[in-house]
TrEMBL record:
Listed name of the protein: histidine kinase
Top-level lineage group: Bacteria
Species: Anaerovirgula multivorans
Span of domain Histidine kinase: 1-148
Subcellular location: Membrane
Length: 148
């Protein structure tokens, strides 16, 4: 069923901001005020919540997280950008495996399931997910969801 992707994304960001430290900031960037598409609301909410939760929990309070929403003729493109701990290069290939957690997470808790679920949900939408990461510099996840 058609939903407003901009509005949904904005409300997920607001939900995350409420759940994190007051000194941490999540910036939402979109050129469009509204964009209606046939995407599953629950799937998209789960995908964005997991990626934003990771971006904030693997960053410090003063390191801003950004979510950029873009559209082209065929796709909705989300970029979740953080300047946090990053993922060691040799471990990056394991990231979407269930229960996998990188060696640099320290005391930050988690089950290692979030990204495995995200990957499944993106596959259901026939989309794609990719990331670029450098340890101690940050990570950018790119999610592409085809518009149907
Ligand atoms: P949860 O199941 O509660 O989400 P989790 O966050 O540990 O637990 P995933 O979301 O699947 O599990 O992420 C897997 C691992 O990938 C994390 O433990 C962490 O090592 C790494 N990771 C994911 N996102 C980031 C990020 N934005 N920055 C740095 N490391 C990340
Ligand atoms: Mg997670």
């Amino acid at each position: 069923q058609p939903i407003d992707v901009v509005r949904l994304t904005k409300s997920v960001v607001e939900g995350i901001v409420e759940s994190i430290s007051q000194s941490q900031n999540v910036l939402f960037l979109s050129r469009k005020e509204s964009f209606v598409a046939n995407v599953d609301e629950f799937l998209l909410t789960t995908i964005l919540t997991n990626l934003l939760s990771n971006a904030t929990k693997y960053s410090k309070d003063n390191e801003e997280v950004r979510l950029k929403l873009e559209f082209d003729n065929k796709n909705i493109v989300f970029k979740i950008i953080d300047k946090g701990i990053g993922i060691p290069e040799v471990e990056q290939k394991n990231l979407f495996k269930s229960f996998y957690r990188a060696s640099n997470v320290g005391k930050v808790s988690g089950t290692g399931l979030g990204l495995a679920i995200v990957k499944d949900f993106i596959d259901i939408h026939k989309g794609s997910i990719d990331f670029i990461s450098r340890e101690d510099e940050g990570t950018t996840f790119t999610v592409i969801i085809p518009i149907i």
